[in-house]
Write a structure and sequence with these properties.
The protein has 399 residues and is an alpha+beta fold. It is built from twelve helices and 14 strands. The protein is globular.
């Protein structure tokens, strides 16, 4: 792959046909020469930090200054990661589905403080009539888990999942506390968008993604599934048995949030065609790294995806406190997570974005003019890793 000069400076190229090999790892792409240290850290991730396959894309000042791919899409290291390789980016999808709801706020379809039930009447069931759109967007709606037992067959049907979520008795009075809606967020916000527009979130995503040229899906079409990399994360055995008789209410809520249905967090179903095709925007959005970065670059362009005032509100702290699902103090915006010392994106206080399971991340830094996307297939514990930290730190050393 080659590239010529652009407004950000001279662009260097890594030959896609004869990729640079570090310990036999294929790496290819383009980058602005000023960001050479980022390329070196990307290579070191494979050599020193156990990376298997990944993509990295960075915009600075509106220009793409890093666009790299490397490694392999499969555990056997048989297929090279390409610029169009898609991979599950897990919770990186949460702010992207939130953008779809926030666009409806911008359009006056509903307001942040309108009840969810004003557009989704069934959601008022079991005491949730006071839950607002704002509550839903910042994890305060009270439904981080579905109470009725669900199966993985249910998981493949969007309506079945949203109906069950709407019928669930809340785990607390809406608006009085928060807990990370780790998986239900996709059906909660996606269901809100569906009820307001008549379109499934994957369909609703297409105009926004096409506007900024982002290769990203909620529900990968059959024709695109061959592009998907395998996620190298295969927990052994079956999901834990959930016994309500030996769990506290809080423990039950947390367990159900991850394992009801059993495959809600991708356990036992990741890399299957049904998992990739279904729509769980909180958990199984599939994207390229460049696709993630293009969404965040679009958010940096005033009025392109969201109005500046609404974006400022969405990326500011909306709920702060201990989260029993994550087991720590957490700050939530409206879909986005503002940067914090515990979960930093960069050094500037206005940065916002979201990490995903295993290390994927997308964020924007308005002060620095940075939009960043990183996607990988080798899942390592939690959300912040030595790999994404090395890449983010290197970007800031270059500007």
């Amino acid at each position: 792959m080659t590239a010529g000069p652009d407004e950000a400076g001279v662009t260097a190229g890594l030959d896609e046909g004869a990729p640079t090999r570090i310990d036999e790892v294929p790496v290819s792409g383009t980058y602005d020469e000023r960001f050479g240290p980022v390329v070196e850290e990307f290579r070191r991730n494979f050599v020193e930090r156990g990376e298997v396959g990944a993509g990295l894309a960075v915009f600075h000042g509106g220009a793409m200054v890093v666009d790299l791919v490397g490694g392999w899409t499969d555990e056997g290291r048989m297929t090279v990661w390409r610029p169009d390789t898609l991979v599950d980016v897990y919770s990186v999808g949460k702010p992207i589905v939130a953008v779809l709801a926030l666009q409806l706020v911008d359009q006056g379809i509903f307001g942040l403080d309108d009840p969810v039930a004003s557009v989704w009447p069934e959601f008022a069931a079991a005491g949730k009539a006071t839950a607002t759109v704002r509550h839903a967007l910042c994890h305060r709606a009270g439904v981080p888990a579905i109470r009725q037992p669900m199966t993985d067959e249910d998981l493949w049907d969007f309506a079945t999942m949203t109906d069950a979520l709407a019928a669930t008795e809340p785990w607390w009075e809406s608006g009085t506390r928060h807990a990370y809606h780790t998986n239900t967020y996709g059906h909660l916000i996606g269901g809100l968008v569906h009820r307001a527009t008549g379109e499934l979130p994957g369909t609703r995503l297409r105009p926004a993604a096409d506007l900024v040229g982002a290769d990203i899906f909620f529900g990968v079409p059959d024709a695109e599934q061959a592009r998907c990399a395998d996620v190298l994360w295969a927990p052994k055995g079956k999901p834990p048995v959930i016994d309500p008789d030996i769990l506290t209410t809080e423990q039950l809520m947390v367990m159900l949030s991850y394992f009801n249905p059993p495959g809600y967090s991708s356990w036992g179903v990741v890399n299957t065609r049904p998992w990739r095709a279904t729509q769980i925007p909180s958990t199984n959005s599939h994207a390229t790294a460049a696709g993630v970065a293009r969404i965040y670059q679009g958010l940096l362009e005033p009025g392109l995806l969201l109005s500046p005032g609404l974006l400022a509100e969405a990326t500011s702290p909306q709920s702060v406190g201990f989260c029993p699902v994550l087991g720590e103090e957490v700050t939530f915006g409206l879909g986005f997570k503002p940067t914090t010392p515990r979960r930093p994106f960069g050094p500037n206080p206005s940065a916002f974005g979201h990490f995903g399971t295993g290390g994927a991340v997308g964020f924007a830094d308005p002060m620095a003019g940075i939009a960043f996307g990183y996607a990988m297939n080798h899942v390592i514990p939690r959300w912040q890793s030595s790999r994404n930290r090395a890449l983010i730190d290197a970007v800031y050393r270059c500007i």
